[in-house]
Specification:
It is built from eight helices and ten strands. The protein is α/β, with parallel strands linked by helices. It has a domain of 176 residues: Rossmann fold, CATH 3.40.50. The longest helix is centred in the last third of the chain and has 18 residues. The protein is globular and about 55 Å long. The two termini are 30 Å apart. The N terminus and C terminus are likely disordered.
Length: 263
């Protein structure tokens, strides 16, 4: 990995944390360019995500919300600070070890479903496990498939599924390996409101009933209201938190950051 790691100088906020920290950042900075072109996408961010917690990350366009998720998930390097997944410090890990962390400890859901069109739903769900050389825990797989309501769609290919069903396949794929934490980047961005509600309800249920930890980047106050905690970023810094949010309360907080329509 090409970033520098520094020893934590402070303890990240524990407000809203679950039984213990699954992922944490301390003094996290991400800088692009130098001199007059220097931009701090993340500026001394400290945050942690507790086990069994559903956190939404929100902020205006360019606030650093996706950058934070990508750095914490080992998808992007960072300039300074510390990122931990469990007890593992990501700073200084090479690409091979980062790939292992992502495969063994993390799940990912993106706005684009990223399903392979030639594979069935079940084959798409099992693909990350196969790439990692692991065998699925059948009881857990059955629980996940039942939770997303896909039992009668497992032999269908993506082209035979609706957008909402495809995203539920992507959700099942993310959970199939029983990851420490699932990172979701605008998971309902390509869905209509009904399909989006189904996906968000599943993510909330996975936290509530399966003990999953979910961190979701979103621009949508309604989507954020499914989380138990919302972390707000502006100009690369955490500026606020909201617990047990409603859509109206989230929108009111967003208006403080100079935008009526969060992006």
């Amino acid at each position: 990995m090409r970033h520098a790691a520094s020893s934590p100088a402070a303890t990240p906020s524990t407000r809203g944390a679950g039984s213990r920290s699954v992922a944490a950042a301390v003094g996290l900075c991400k800088v692009y360019g130098e001199g007059e072109t220097r931009v701090a996408a993340l500026d001394d961010v400290s945050v942690q995500f507790g086990r069994g917690e559903f956190t939404a990350i929100m902020g205006p366009s360019g606030s650093g919300k996706s950058t934070l998720m990508h750095c914490m998930a080992g998808l992007d390097d960072f300039s300074s600070g510390s990122v931990r997944i469990g007890e593992t410090e990501l700073g200084g890990l090479d690409d091979r070890h980062l790939t292992r962390i992502r495969r063994e400890k993390l799940g990912f859901i993106f706005q684009a479903f990223n399903l392979l069109p030639t594979l069935t739903a079940l084959e798409n769900i099992l693909l990350p496990l196969q790439l990692a050389g692991r065998t699925a825990d059948q009881d857990w797989l059955d629980t996940v498939v039942a939770s997303v309501g896909l039992a009668d769609r497992l032999q269908h290919r993506p082209s035979q599924l609706s957008g909402g069903q495809q995203q539920r396949v992507a959700c099942a794929r993310a959970l199939a390996s029983r990851p420490e934490i699932v990172f979701a980047d605008e998971p309902t961005g390509n869905l209509d409101s009904r399909s989006g509600s189904e996906v968000l309800s599943f993510l909330a249920a996975s936290v509530r009933e399966l003990g999953q930890t979910v961190v979701m980047v979103t621009h949508d106050p309604v989507a954020a209201s499914y989380a138990g905690r919302v972390v707000f970023l502006a100009d690369g810094r955490i500026v606020d938190e909201l617990h047990q949010p409603t859509a109206d309360a989230v929108l009111a907080r967003m208006k403080r950051f100079g935008t009526d329509q969060p992006a």
